[in-house]
Amino acid sequence: MTFLMRYKVIFILLALVSAINVVPSNAALSPSAIPAVFDKLLAVPALSNPAMILIDGTTGEVVYQRKAYSQRKPASVMKLLSGVATLKYLDPETTFSTNISIGVDSRTLVIQGSHDPWISASHITARKMNRVSLPHLANISMAMLKKANGGSLKDITVIYSRLFSQDVSNFKSFWAKRGFKPEMRAVSSAESLARAGEITAGEESPKLYEMLEFTLLWSDNLLAERLARLASRAAGNSFNIEGVVQTFTQVLTELEIDPTKLRVVDASGLSKENRITASMVGQLLFKLRLDEKFKYIYDSLPVGGISGTLESRFLTTAPTAVGLVRAKTGTLNGTVTLAGFVESVDREYVFVTLADDIQRGTRASDKARAAIDRILGRIAAPNIPTEISEVEPTP
User: What sign does the CA torsion over 252, 254, 260, 263 have?
Assistant: First the structure.
């Protein structure tokens, strides 16, 4: 463990000890006290008219809401919908294979993909994370073709099936830098199978749930987009953003959540044209928490002050909340969002905060995050059982 890592662990432990000693668990706001306090905390200029909802995680009762039905920019909170769709329509144990072979014609290379959403363009990253290495497959392909064609790489055709367009571009770029410029042609899976020779090399992806974990923990935009498209196809919809819109609407409808105010331009939350409501996200989180099918989403969310995109949050803004908040972050210029779960003594709350009308710039975003942290700090508290020991009578 490095010095910086040791320092951080010590800092977190001190923050937790301090929180427990200074603010005992019974100091957390009671449900009846929350509305008045939250009204005041949400009125700060740093948040500029946010939307929020707080739901009792056991009963589903709405404890607090503010503009919960207004359409707001979700930023990366949109990835929660991608995650739910992924687990609803795909097996979390699924893996994806990418195989290469020399075709029936020796001047043809066949790549049989399966739309692996996490192929890595970096060999080092691929080996470190057990992902498919595009450079490795590209290098082997060149070696195979040279061997089959007396060292020549001229007049080569690469036919491929079920590869994402960006991965095709990465293959072309990798080869071009090495003087290899084949004709690239997309074909159906059936045609690639018919034209392939004996599979010479191939690699398999990590399991789907590992990809989902990374997506939510580190807010990976590309993975969110690709997983949503895979879920869309599995749901019987088209393999594009129109299909994703249908799939997200389908998911909400089947969970008995009104989707009419949902607007989806992308599956990652990058677009400022996306719209969602705090109530919609809150209901989604409440229902997924109760369904074992979606447990990977809860388990994959960043933990305040400890992991992922929340690693540096709450440490100084709300030490009482360190380790007690699991949530998906979201940031665009002028927008800061947070949605997830917070432990509060003997209960868990579902919360959603969408502040999409703040000033632009890093400083304004930092202030908005700190304000949200402090709000959660008023209800976050560990459930510490009271131990009563018998006292021996004095003889």
Answer: positive
What is d(CA 54, CA 378) in angstroms, rounded to the nearest whole number? 13
Report in angstroms the alpha-carbon separations of 12 from 18, 316, 317, 320, 378: 10, 10, 13, 11, 18
Instruction: Report yes or no: 170 and 121 within 8 Å, Cβ to Cβ.
Output: yes
CATH number among 3.40.710.10, 3.40.50.670, 3.40.50.720, 3.30.450.80, domain 24-90+210-377? 3.40.710.10
What global pTM score does this model have? 0.90
- Residue 198, pLDDT > 70, answer yes
Nearest partner of 136 among 211, 207, 201, 210, judged by Cα: 201
pLDDT range class, residue 27, cuts 50, 70, 90: low
Burial of 290 (0-12, 13-18, 19+ CB in 10 A): exposed
User: What's the token pair of residue 66?
Assistant: 């503010």
Could you give phi then psi for residue 263, rounded to 5 degrees?
-130, 120
Count of residues in the chain: 395
Tokens 């450079």: give the residue: 135
Give the whole-angstrom CA distance, residue 54 versus residue 40.
15
| R_g of the chain, CA atoms, integer Å | 25
Q: Is 15 left (phi over 0), alpha (psi -120 to 50) or beta?
A: alpha
**Domain segments of the chain as ranges:** 24-90+210-377, 97-206
Question: Could you tell me if residue 349 is left (phi over 0), alpha (psi between -120 and 50 degrees) or otherwise beta?
Answer: beta
Query: Whole-angstrom Cα distance, residue 349 to residue 54?
Result: 6
Q: Which residue has the tokens 């049989």?
A: 112
Q: Exposed, middle or buried: residue 279 (CB in 10 Å: 0-12, 13-18, 19+)? A: buried
Torsions phi, psi for 173 (to 5 deg): -65, -45
- The residue-averaged pLDDT of 197-223 equals 95
Q: Which amino acid is at 325?
A: V
